[in-house]
């Protein structure tokens, strides 16, 4: 029998889930995110015992041969692979951790994830299965990454995901989560919850890599990172595919001296729809933040990034900034990038800025005068635009993976980009 | 080989800037095109390279008889034309070294060997007194005015084009930087290469002595001569040319 802190939350959340309507997210202007095309009732959690060949190939393609401290893979509703090569850490399915380490889990479980903040967070709290639990004890330094993979390989699947990571005092660790699917025909839903607690003095290098492929995978997730005194988290969320993504990403400097470095990117194509809302929340004074988000859009895709810096009362001497850039590469793509700021205390340094634009014609002309054909100039400029984010990964394997995917996407969109850039040049 | 500009009329938006420019540069020659601000010098340079913001309404640009008037900028570059920009674009995420290799390879069938590229780059950086660390910086990002100009001349040296247009390369340079850039240009002057040096001032012409000087005012070339014309301009200023032109017209 699972402990009551899990069961009580499930019950309370189920009530919220059943009472809540399927939401539509609207903002002023043209922006609406709706789930009206998602047939929620047709989806179900699917259980598996292992990985099939397709899954193994996808995992191999993305993770390569890099050695890891631990690897855990959840396929649909089931954790099907766990491999821990560093016995100083606990990495196991969250369901198992609830049984085997109830005290450790209870201390942190859902601390930053209320069960009643909307239909899908409630659904997640009520229905999560499998899950990932990572615990790095105090003063332990793990060099190799801890990798978690979330796989959806069949249409009709709903995946209620929950990851809980606790990084002990002065511990150091790299955490990588991958969200992957082969291109299938049909719909699926990943409704995820991620929470990470970096304890005082911890150093965390965190990356999320999402590429749900060409199927109709919907991703409705909440991810929260809490940083305690003098701890530092570098977080790089990467969005490279998904039919519809609606995510809330929050990073919280909770105690003095904590530091966030938050760098994200997205590249949408075809008819993808991406809606991201990030908050850099400063809850204590003497905290620092540095956020950069960059996106590019091709095809008929839609992408909205809204980034908020929120400095709560009393968090003075905070020093933080956020910048966001978005590049349109197709005449039919639409997007916006909105930085905003709520400052509820005095004596802080906070700034933000944003741009939405197209490729710079002067840059293209300049490169062409050096003999570089237009298509290659465009590719180099877009890759260069993302390079700032890619290099912040500081992870050669993952950097290569991201660069390859950017190049693939540009190649796939070459004709429309050429047409668009050509039209713009002529209009000028 | 010859670069010929014939009766060139150029418009930007709805306004005609160049009203019939004729200019011929043969290989091995260095020409200076001088004129006050707004006379159309940079328009000519940009039009030579095929900047899409400039529209040729009449006339032709020929490189060794081949008509390049409608060619894309990259075709012109591969045909042997080069421009050092007055205000070069910043290329984020692309290091100087990678950019140079890409540009060099754009003009070759087979990519240049790493070793050969390194040797040529090293030699040219020495020529232009450029620090080695410079090559790993993103092209023009955070560069000072002088660094940008030097990066332009480094590209010129690496690409070794048949014809090079230097658009106000001297402006904004202090005397030391001007000397280094001029030494670099002089080292590249040879029988196989033509130069068109566009400048507002006569200063650079003290270091890079042209054989021919053309003066442009209000979109027309109004005076042509040898290097002595630049000296005369130095003494008397553009107003003198303007008055002369007005006098001869009446």
List keywords for this structure.
heterodimer, A: 428 residues, alpha/beta, 9-stranded mixed sheet, B: 250 residues, 6-stranded mixed sheet, 12 strands
Task: Set down the secondary structure blueprint.
The complex is a heterodimer of chains A (428) and B (250).
Chain A (H helix, E strand, L loop, with lengths): L3 H16 L5 E2 L5 E2 L19 H11 L6 E6 L2 E7 L5 E3 L1 H7 L1 H7 L10 H9 L4 E5 L9 E6 L5 E11 L4 E9 L6 E12 L4 E9 L4 E12 L4 E8 L4 E10 L5 E10 L4 E10 L5 E10 L4 E10 L7 E10 L5 E10 L5 E10 L2 H8 L5 H18 L4 H17 L1 H14 L1
Parallel strand pairs in A: 3-7, 6-8, 7-9, 8-10, 9-11, 10-12, 11-13, 12-14, 13-15, 14-16, 15-17, 16-18, 17-19, 18-20, 19-21
Antiparallel strand pairs in A: 1-2, 3-4, 5-6
Chain B lengths: L1 E11 L2 E12 L3 E5 L6 H9 L4 E10 L2 E2 L5 H7 L1 E4 L6 E5 H11 L7 H14 L10 E2 L5 H15 L3 E5 L7 H14 L5 E6 L12 E6 L2 E6 L1 H23 L1
Parallel strand pairs in B: 3-10, 3-11, 6-9, 9-10
Antiparallel strand pairs in B: 1-2, 1-4, 4-5, 7-8, 11-12
Helix pairs in contact in B: 3-5, 5-6
How does this structure look, described?
The complex is a heterodimer of chains A (428) and B (250). By secondary structure, chain A is of the alpha/beta class. Chain A has helices at 4-19, 53-63, 94-100, 102-108, 119-127, 361-368, 374-391, 396-412, 414-427, and strands at residues 25-26, 32-33, 70-75, 78-84, 90-92, 132-136, 146-151, 157-167, 172-180, 187-198, 203-211, 216-227, 232-239, 244-253, 259-268, 273-282, 288-297, 302-311, 319-328, 334-343, 349-358. In chain A, a hairpin with a 5-residue loop joins strand 1 and strand 2 (32-33). In chain A, helix 1 (4-19) packs antiparallel against helix 5 and helix 6 (361-368) crosses helix 7. Chain A is globular, with a radius of gyration of 21 Å. Chain B has a domain at 2-86 and 161-249: 3-Layer(aba) Sandwich (Rossmann fold), CATH 3.40.50.300. Helices cover 37% and strands 30% of the residues of chain B. Chain B contains 7 helices and 12 strands. Chain B has helices spanning 41-49, 73-79, 96-106, 114-127, 145-159, 175-188, 227-249, and strands at residues 2-12, 15-26, 30-34, 54-63, 66-67, 81-84, 91-95, 138-139, 163-167, 194-199, 212-217, 220-225. In chain B, helix 3 (96-106) packs parallel to helix 5 and helix 5 (145-159) runs parallel beside helix 6 (175-188). The longest helix of chain B is centred in the C-terminal third of the chain and has 23 residues, at 227-249. The mean pLDDT of chain B is 93. Chains A and B meet through helix 6 and helix 7 of A and helix 2, strand 7 and helix 3 of B.
């Amino acid at each position: 029998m699972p402990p009551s802190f899990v069961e009580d939350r499930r019950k309370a959340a189920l009530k919220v889930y059943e009472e809540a309507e399927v939401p539509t997210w609207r903002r002023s202007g043209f922006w609406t995110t709706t789930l009206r095309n998602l047939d929620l009732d047709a989806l179900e959690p699917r259980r598996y015992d292992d990985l099939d060949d397709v899954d193994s190939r996808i995992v191999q393609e993305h993770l390569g041969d890099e050695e890891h401290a631990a690897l855990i893979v959840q396929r649909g509703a089931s954790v099907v692979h766990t491999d821990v090569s560093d016995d100083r850490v606990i990495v196991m399915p969250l369901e198992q951790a609830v049984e085997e380490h109830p005290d450790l889990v209870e201390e942190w479980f859902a601390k930053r994830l209320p069960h009643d903040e909307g239909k899908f967070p409630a659904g997640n709290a009520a229905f999560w299965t499998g899950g990932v639990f990572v615990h790095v004890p105090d003063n332990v330094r793990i060099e190799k990454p801890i990798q978690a993979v979330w796989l959806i390989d069949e249409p009709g699947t709903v995946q209620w995901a929950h990851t809980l990571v606790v990084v002990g005092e002065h511990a150091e660790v790299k955490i990588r989560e991958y969200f992957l699917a082969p291109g299938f025909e049909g719909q699926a839903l990943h409704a995820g919850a991620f929470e990470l607690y970096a304890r005082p003095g911890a150093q965390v290098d965190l990356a999320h890599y999402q590429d749900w492929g060409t199927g109709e995978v919907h991703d409705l997730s909440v991810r929260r990172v809490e940083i305690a005194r003098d701890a530092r988290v570098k977080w790089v969320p990467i969005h490279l595919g998904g039919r519809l993504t609606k995510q809330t990403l929050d990073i919280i400097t909770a105690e003095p001296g904590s530091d966030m470095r938050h760098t994200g990117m997205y590249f949408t194509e075809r008819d993808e729809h991406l809606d991201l809302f990030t908050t850099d929340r400063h809850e204590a004074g003497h905290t620092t933040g540095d956020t950069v988000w960059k996106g590019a859009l091709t095809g008929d895709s839609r992408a909205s990034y809204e980034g908020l810096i929120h400095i709560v009362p009393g968090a003075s001497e905070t020093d933080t900034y956020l910048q966001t850039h978005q590049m349109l590469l197709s005449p039919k793509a639409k997007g916006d990038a909105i930085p905003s700021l709520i400052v509820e205390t005095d004596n802080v340094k906070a700034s933000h800025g944003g741009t939405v634009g197209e490729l710079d014609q002067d840059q293209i002309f300049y490169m062409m005068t050096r003999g570089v054909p237009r298509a290659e100039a465009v590719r180099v400029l877009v890759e260069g635009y993302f390079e700032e984010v890619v290099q912040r990964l500081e992870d050669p394997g993952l950097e290569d993976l991201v660069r390859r995917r950017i190049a693939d996407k540009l190649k796939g969109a070459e004709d429309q980009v050429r047409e668009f850039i050509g039209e713009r040049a002529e209009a000028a | 080989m010859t670069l010929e500009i014939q009766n060139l009329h150029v418009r930007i938006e709805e306004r005609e800037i160049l009203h019939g420019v004729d200019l011929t540069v043969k290989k091995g020659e260095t020409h200076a095109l001088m004129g006050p601000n707004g006379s159309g010098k940079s328009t000519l340079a940009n039009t030579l390279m095929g900047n899409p913001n400039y529209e040729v309404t009449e006339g032709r640009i020929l490189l060794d008889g081949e008509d390049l008037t409608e060619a894309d900028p990259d075709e012109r570059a591969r045909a042997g034309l080069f421009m050092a920009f007055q205000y070069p674009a910043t290329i984020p995420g692309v290091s100087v070294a990678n950019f140079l290799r890409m540009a060099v390879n754009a003009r070759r069938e087979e990519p240049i060997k790493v070793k050969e590229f390194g040797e040529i780059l090293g030699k040219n950086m020495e020529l232009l007194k450029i620090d080695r660390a410079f090559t790993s910086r993103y092209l023009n990002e955070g560069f000072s005015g002088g660094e940008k100009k030097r990066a332009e001349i480094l590209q010129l040296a690496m690409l070794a084009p048949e014809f090079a247009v230097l658009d106000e390369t001297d402006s904004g340079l202090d005397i030391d930087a001007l000397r280094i850039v001029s030494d670099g240009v002089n080292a590249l002057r040879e029988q196989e290469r033509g130069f068109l040096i566009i400048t507002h001032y006569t200063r650079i012409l003290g270091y890079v002595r042209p054989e021919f000087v053309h003066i442009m005012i209000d979109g027309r070339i109004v005076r042509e001569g040898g290097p002595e014309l630049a000296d005369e301009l130095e003494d008397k200023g553009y107003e003198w040319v303007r008055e002369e032109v007005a006098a001869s017209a009446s």
